[in-house]
């Protein structure tokens, strides 16, 4: 049960329904030319984003008392993060092998975040997971739910997937609001699901299947009352 074919990449998804100046939202490939804008965006939103950032555990094995630590075999504490160019190349490799669709989120020509469709699996599961972050200055403007809906529809209509899910920390109120707006089904709590800021954290799983949105998740989102 693995990826059996690589979807077309790069791909650009576009929506013009947002009530912002211009109102054009693009999901596109992250480019090396985005470096300065990406670095500035991350720096400006460090406090907004850092508490939700995924981290990698210490190397796998057991401590001196025999307790299991968990982690990534072969990793050492000295492992350095890649350069931005290396980061973009790694995203492109993952996209081309069909396991991930790593989108930059662009609003009216401005880089405002990222959205990643990951764990793309075919066979009997036909599923993927969606994760995202955006700058605080665009939060609450419909950018994130629209982007998630666009990506979900691409998964359903172009990739032929059956199900997409979003996993969210229970205390991440802004992100919980996104899935509430989209009407995703709450499938319950996954204990110690992801490593976040140095510890294993619980997440709630929200999901939608293609038969639930025959006209697409974006169509359902556009038709929902805007709070």
UniProtKB/TrEMBL annotation:
Gene3D superfamilies: 3.40.630.30. The keyword Ribonucleoprotein applies. GO terms for cellular component: cytoplasm; ribosome. InterPro entries: Acyl_CoA_acyltransferase, GNAT_dom, N-acetyltransferase. The keyword Cytoplasm does not apply. It comes from the Bacteria. Residues 25-211 form the N-acetyltransferase domain. Keywords: Acyltransferase, Ribonucleoprotein, Ribosomal protein, Transferase. One of its GO terms (molecular function) is protein-N-terminal-alanine acetyltransferase activity. Residues 56-76 are annotated as: Disordered. This is Acetyltransferase, ribosomal protein N-acetylase.
């Amino acid at each position: 049960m693995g990826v059996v074919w690589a979807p077309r990449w790069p791909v650009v998804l576009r929506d013009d329904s947002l009530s912002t100046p211009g109102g054009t939202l693009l999901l596109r490939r992250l480019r090396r030319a985005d470096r300065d804008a990406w670095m500035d965006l991350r720096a400006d939103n460090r406090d907004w984003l850092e508490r939700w950032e995924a981290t990698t555990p210490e190397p796998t094995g057991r401590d001196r008392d025999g307790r299991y630590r968990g982690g990534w075999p072969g990793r050492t504490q000295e492992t350095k993060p890649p350069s931005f160019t290396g980061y973009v190349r790694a995203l492109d490799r993952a996209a081309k092998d069909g396991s991930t669709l790593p989108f930059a989120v662009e609003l009216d020509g401005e880089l405002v975040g990222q959205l990643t469709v990951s764990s793309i699996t075919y066979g009997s599961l036909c599923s993927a997971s969606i994760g995202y972050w955006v700058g605080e200055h665009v939060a609450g403007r419909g950018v994130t739910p629209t982007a998630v809906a666009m990506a979900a529809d691409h998964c359903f209509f172009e990739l032929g997937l059956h199900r997409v899910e979003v996993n969210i920390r229970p205390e991440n109120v802004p992100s919980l609001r996104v899935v509430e707006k989209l009407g995703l089904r709450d499938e319950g709590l996954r204990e110690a699901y992801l490593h976040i800021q140095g510890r294993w954290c619980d997440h709630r799983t929200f999901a939608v299947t293609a038969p639930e949105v025959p006209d697409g998740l974006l169509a359902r989102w556009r038709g929902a009352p805007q709070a």
